[in-house]
């Protein structure tokens, strides 16, 4: 074969296309494949903020439901409202983390306004949770006072009935004595052949034990009440304080969102007042000229010279 039939050195073989290489690239090194970062880019976009807005919406619906069932000046309603709000504080906290934990630089102006209002709302939330903490304390005190008064009233009523019944035992007929024994001392075993005097003496002997058992039951009820109210109140008290602190921290760490101006500042001062004043002066001037018929004097030469003298127009016409 002739050497002219062989392809020149360094040329690409027939049927193949030489790759277009950029200056500074090395042949044979393939371009690095692009790494897909859709999952990471979602964390930098608006999807977490949308989830945060949804959680805030659900929290707002829960608050409206609680307020719809709320009864003013009712310690049970105060305790329920405060405890439910404190137990649900995790929802707005997670929502704030989703909203402000991503890059908000690309947010539109309206959304930046929303972010600023949410940042201010964190401070409002801190004040509200501090108020709920005080509401927890006041409702716990009122609940304990009312329940303790109820227990004391029932105790006193029971003891008074036992003491009054013990004083009337001697004057009661046998049938009434048996009824009193069944009512006051239901656990007392009485023999059927006892006389009314013996039955009265037996009931009178057992009355101090019954009265003591009433006092013991009342003391146990008051101890259980204190444990229930004070332990639960302490739980929600510290929960309310912690919630207020977390809201305050959220407000402090969203300072950049509060730099946004909701109302766009003007680049130049407004001249509306000056323009209106100038228009008013011009209207007065035209009205005065029309009233004095100043345009009629334009026919006289002396008036035209006098006007040019005072206006500084001395050119020849």
Keywords summarizing the entry:
elongated, 317 residues, 9 helices, disordered N terminus, mainly alpha
Radius of gyration: 47 Å
- Note the gap between the termini: 104 Å
Order of helices and strands: HHHHHHHHH
How confident overall, as mean pLDDT? 78
β-strand percent reads: under 5%
Largest sheet: none
- Please estimate the helix content: 55-70%
How many separate helices?
9
Spans of at least 5 consecutive residues whose pLDDT stays below 50 are 1-26, 35-43
What general outline do the C-alpha atoms trace?
A: elongated
Structural category: mainly alpha
The count of strands amounts to 0
Write a structural description:
α2 (47-68) runs antiparallel to α4. This protein has helices at 38-44, 47-68, 75-87, 90-100, 109-167, 174-184, 196-252, 272-292, 301-311. Mean pLDDT is 78; it is low at 1-26 and 35-43. It is mainly alpha-helical and 317 residues long. It is built from nine helices and no strands.
Short overview:
The protein is an all-alpha fold. It has helices at 38-44, 47-68, 75-87, 90-100, 109-167, 174-184, 196-252, 272-292, 301-311.
Give the helix/strand layout.
Elements: H1 38-44, H2 47-68, H3 75-87, H4 90-100, H5 109-167, H6 174-184, H7 196-252, H8 272-292, H9 301-311
Helix pairs in contact: 2-4, 3-5, 3-7, 5-7, 6-7
């Amino acid at each position: 074969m002739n050497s002219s039939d062989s392809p020149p050195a360094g040329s690409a073989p027939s049927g193949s296309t030489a790759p277009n290489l950029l200056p500074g690239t090395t042949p044979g090194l393939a371009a690095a494949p692009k790494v897909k970062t859709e999952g990471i880019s979602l964390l930098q976009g608006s999807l977490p903020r949308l989830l945060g807005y949804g959680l805030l919406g659900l929290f707002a619906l829960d608050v409206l439901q609680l307020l719809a069932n709320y009864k003013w000046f009712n310690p049970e309603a105060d305790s329920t409202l405060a405890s439910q709000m404190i137990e649900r504080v995790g929802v707005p906290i997670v929502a704030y983390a989703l909203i402000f934990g991503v890059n908000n630089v690309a947010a539109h102006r309206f959304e930046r306004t929303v972010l600023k209002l949410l940042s201010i709302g964190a401070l409002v939330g801190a004040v509200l949770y501090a108020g709920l903490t005080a509401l927890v304390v006041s409702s716990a005190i009122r609940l304990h006072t009312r329940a303790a008064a109820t227990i004391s009233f029932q105790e006193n009523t029971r003891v008074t009935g036992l003491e009054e019944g013990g004083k009337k035992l001697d004057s009661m007929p046998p049938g009434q004595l048996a009824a009193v024994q069944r009512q006051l001392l239901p656990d007392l075993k009485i023999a059927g052949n006892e006389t009314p005097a013996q039955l009265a003496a037996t009931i009178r002997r057992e009355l101090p034990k019954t009265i003591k058992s009433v006092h013991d039951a009342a003391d146990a009820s008051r101890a259980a009440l204190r444990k229930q109210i004070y332990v639960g109140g302490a739980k929600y008290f510290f929960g309310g304080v912690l919630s207020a602190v977390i809201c305050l921290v959220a407000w402090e760490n969203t300072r950049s969102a509060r730099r946004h101006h909701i109302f766009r500042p003007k680049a130049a001062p407004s001249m509306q007042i000056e323009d209106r004043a100038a228009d008013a002066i011009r209207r007065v001037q035209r009205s005065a000229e029309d009233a004095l018929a100043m345009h009629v004097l334009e026919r006289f030469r002396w008036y035209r010279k006098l006007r040019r003298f005072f206006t500084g127009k001395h050119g020849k016409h």
